Structure formats: structure tokens, C-alpha cells
Write the C-alpha cells for this entry.
Amino acid sequence: MRARRSPVATAPLVLVLAAVLSLAGCGGRATTHHKPGTSHQEATGTSGTLLAARDEGGHRLRELPTADAPTVRAEARPDSEGGWNVHLTVERFRFTPESTGGAALPGRGHARLLVDGREFTRLYGPWGYVPAGAHTLTVRLHADDHTVWAAAGAPVQTTVRLNGTPTGPTPTGPTPTGSAPPGSPPASPPTSPRPTASRTPDPGRTVTLTISGKTVSPPPSRIELKKGERLTLRVTGDRADTLHVHGYDRELPLSPGTTATLTLVADRTGLFEVETHGSGLLLTQLVVR
Amino acid sequence: MTGLPTHAAHAAELGLPLAHGVGSRHDLPLSPFYAYAGAFAALLISFLALGLLWSTSRFRGDLSGRPLPAALQRLADAPATRTALRLLGAAAGLVLLLHLLLGPDDPDRNPAPGAVYVLFWVGLVPASLLLGPVWRLVNPLRALHALHPPRNPRPLPAAVGIRPAAVGLLLFTWLELVAPDNTSSATLLTALALHCGVQLAGAARHGERWFAHADPFEVYSSLLARLSPLGRRADGRLVLRSPFHGLDATPATPGLVATVCVLLGSTAYDGLSDNPRWITTLQTSSLGPTPTATLGLLAAVALAAACYGLCAGALRLMNRSLTTPLTSFAHSLLPIALGYLVAHYFSLFVTEGPRTVIMAGGTDNASAPAPLLGPAGLATLQVAAIVTGHVLGVVAAHDRSVRLFPPARAVAGQLPLFALMIAYTLGGIGLLIA
């Protein structure tokens, strides 16, 4: 008579399960029983500074100090049936689908995927899918009240090109966007995630390249690297373009006057060319031994 | 080695062509150790050869060789074998054409560019070295021509020789090393149409013999096959022979020098095109990158030819009775060209070749296998290939020289040739350091 277990035996089990589930659900903030935006208090929405600027979808930007602002990296892997599986890596950010529509709390919200500049879907978790035919994917972090998280005046977002072979399974594939508006100081783009410095203390080498017209300065030469060495390329162009590191197949959008930064670990030996696609210029060669 | 995909991404977008048409990984430049070792070996071998090699000619060209079993020869010469090879070639050509016409215009997803630049062009080298002049057996154009052979073919003027093939080879190396968008379907189809048009028109006028003189790939394959251990004796027997004999039997047709100079010059330009200084020149040239690169390729061929011309002139001065100084020694440059080809193309062939085959099997975004050799192994192979080519060249030239020169002058008579070969070899190694 297993099917008719007495209710006395079941009740404690249900209680324990409920307790476990509720604990798990409250893992982030044990101090409240209410999800943000679902409490009895009215949502204040005072987190950060609401900027006048809006994104393409008309959402206001909500700025946080750069140290508190979330960051996002995206990685796209081809699916065997076509299209791309997208994986987001966020820092200082949680996906909070249960409280969407509530007040903006720092470090909470959802992501929106823009395919070729048009809004495609939202993500309430780190994984998503983009069908074949897409060329660029922009991932932007939104707060629960649909405002766009921003730092230093620019939305927290990242852009991945999908028309080449993506960067494969190595986790070194962030392509920080250079989408800061022209005229902003050519400092490191605010949205570029800091490399995971804790894992590899060696900052590696940094090479700064400037393109003006058809001239590259310093002129094309060979950067000698040991296998496994890290290299950071800081490239400033005078036109919108795409930087491409052959062999490693890393790409980076360039905007005029803005320095874009690409970090890679030289894990393949050989001679590889670093080029721009639009102007077809060879910037430098990497010699990895 | 991680299996990251290598590919000629967006080659169509680039103003600068990728060297070799496909492949995004280039070989490492040689380290000075290998370069010095190679240069020293080349010099030492040359001087040893001068003093120690035989004083009467030993190579008997196509009179020598150990016959293969008659059954094997019957099989090789059987009409069924020939027809099967012809059909195989025609089928492969058709598949390539269909891929170009119907496949995606992207060298990462379409195997056609890799098939042309790696499997066919680079693959002809090992195939011809192992099996002899294979391309004339599978050439799909011969199959097409056989459908409508001309009734009264005009004889080809003897002075033409293999000059049309030299021009064709120069055009193909231009396509491979210089032309923009050289992996796009449109470019490849245009080149293919041009090639087929010229070859079929020539064959319609002059008959099937035209291909042996004008099809660049047949001539290329036949010249490389001179170094194959498998050859055909003058009496038609299929024989195994030392490559030296085969090399010695290279017919001194008009255009042989031009063809060899195109091979030497284009491989030299291939090495040069990786040099950052040359790239800076290309990018900042007021002519634009493609015309500048074209001039560079022509200059490399002209330089190879000028060096050879100088050497031939010196030979003529030393021996008035030598009426054909240019063609008499052209065959000895073939091994040097082969050494360059192996050094430049080996890793491309072993990485991009399998990738192309995988792609043709239907896998998109195929990743190239990891390089077969480590950097040190590859450098050793490159230097060894160039030095071996040099040695074969020196020996071939020595034998020809003791045959043509009176004994008293035979050693001195080789000096210009040896100087030339050392210059070529050091130049070849220098380009790999670049």
C-alpha cells in the first residue's frame, strides 16, 4: 500500500522541502522575505543617477559609479543546427526575472539582445540563442524598471560579431565594445570588462597602435611573443572599422578616435597578422614561438 | 595546441590578399641558428662538390632506369586505367565547378578555394614527385577536348616551346599571391573560365599537343616529375631511376628558363610578402597595394631571371663553344625551386589540406588540424628542403658541366653556376628569416 502513504509522514517532508526551497530562493539577500519590487513598500527607484540620454528603444540610462556598475561579456558558439548559442558572463549583476517591472536595484535586472542593432529578445539568465543570419549581437544590461544600466555615460553592453567563426570554447573571448560616443575621452572604454586579473597576475605586454588614413604608427613590425604570453592591443583608428587577429580569430569593432582594447593569450605558435577589415591594413604581425 | 579554427576569415573584405590564398597561420620566421646552419651547409657542399665530384658525366638521362614488372606497366598503360583517370579528373573538375557555382561565397564554408590553392596547386608537388606527370593523365580539359578533337590540327611552332605555360604559371601565381579577393567564387570562376577558354581554344587549333606545352599545370607537374623516382625510359618502359637521371633528361625546350624563373621568382615573392617592411611599402604606396604587389612579383621573377642570365653570360664567356648556355643548365634550377616550394608550402599543405577535405565532406567551420611539426621541426625541415634542393642542383649542374666543358675547364666553368646557386639558396633562406 505504498500509494496511500499516510499524510502524517508526508507533512514533515513537505515542510522540509518548503524550507529548503525558500532558503534557496532567498539566497541573495537573507534579510528580506520579499523580492525587490514586490515588497509592500513602494519602489523608490533612486538607485544610481537617471540620465537624460536614452537608448534606441527609448529607455533612459541609469548611471552607476564605474566601480559599482555591472559588466557583461558575451560569447557566441555556433549551434550544430545553425545559429548561435550565446553565453553571458556578468559581474556585479544577477538576473532577476521574478522582479522585472519593479524598481531598479543595483546589480539586478535582465539583459536584452540586439541583433544587428534591433532589439531581438530579453534574457533572464546567462544562456540564449540567436538564429542564423545575424551579423552582430549586442548585449545590454537593463534594470528591473527597464532603464539601461550605464557607467561613465555609456550603456553597459558588449558587442559580438557573428559572421565569422566565433572564438571557440576558450573563455578568453570578450570583445569589449568601443561604442562610446565619439568625442568622449579616449580612455579605456567604460564598458570594457577588466580581464580576470586574479587568475593571471601577469598583465602581459601592451602594444599601442594608431591608424591615420593608410598609415599605421608604429609601422607594421613583428611582435615577438612566447607561447602562453598575454598581449593587449590598444588600437585607435580614424574611422569605423573592425580589427581582426588572424589565427586567433578575434575581432574588435573600432570607432573613430576611440581606443579599443583587445587582450589575448598567445596559445598557438606561428606568424599571425593583425588587420583591419574595412581599410584592409595590416597593423602588425604576431610571432608566437 | 588548441584546436582553434584557422581560416581565411572575410578574405573577400580585405584589401590585402592572404598569402597562399587560404590559411591564416603563417610559418614562423627562421631563427638565426637554422639560417646560419643552412647557409654554411650550402657553402660547404658547393665547395666539396667542386673538388670531389666525378670528372666524367654519369647521368644518362632517359636511357637509364630499372624497368618495373611488365604486369605493372601493362596496368599503367591499359586504356581502362587511362579512361578511369580521365573520368576521375573530369568528375573532380565538375565537383569543383559545382562548389564554386552553388556553394557559399565564403572560404570557411566552401571547400573550392582550398581545393584550388592547396589540394590542387600544392598537392601537385608531392603527387608529381611520387607518381610522375600526373596532371596530364587527369586534366579535365583533355577530357573536354577529347569530345571534339579538331580534324586538322596545325602543328605548334617549335619556337613556342613551353612559353605559354610560363605565362600561365605567372598569372596563376599572381592570382595566388597578389590578386585581391582571390578566394571569392567570382574571382575563381573568372580565372577558371579564362584558363579553360584559352586552353580549349589553343587545343582546338593545335590539337592535344597544345596541353603539354601551354597548360601551366601540366608543365609544372611534368617538370617536377623529372625528380620523381618513377619515370619513363626513352624506349617507353616504365622504370625506377635516380632522380638525377630524370632531371638530366629534362628536355631543353624554349621557355624552360622562363618557367623555372617564374617558379623561383614567385616563391621568392611569397617569402617577401610576409615581410613587414614590404607590407608597409604596399600599404603606403601611392600606386595602391595591388599594382605595387604586381610590380613586386614581376621584379622578383625578373631578378631571378637576371641572375640566371648573368650566370649564363659568364658561362658563354668562359666557353665559346657553348651555344645554348641558358637552356643547358636550366634543369639544375628545378631542384632549387622544389626546395623552396617544400619550405614554403609544407605546413600549409598539412594543415589546410585536411581542413579542405573535411569541409568537402560537409563540415562547416572545420578547424585545421594542429601543425604536424613544432617550430623547431618545421625550421629544420625548411632548411633541409632548401639545402637538399641546393645539393641536387649543384650535382646536376656539375654533371652537365663536365659533359659540356673540356676537362681542363670543367671545374672553373662551374664557378658562375655555383655562385648563382649559392645566391639563390642564401636568398631563399634569407627570405625565410625575413
Summary: Residues 17-433 of chain B form one domain. The longest strand of chain B covers residues 230-232. Chain B has one domain: 17-433.
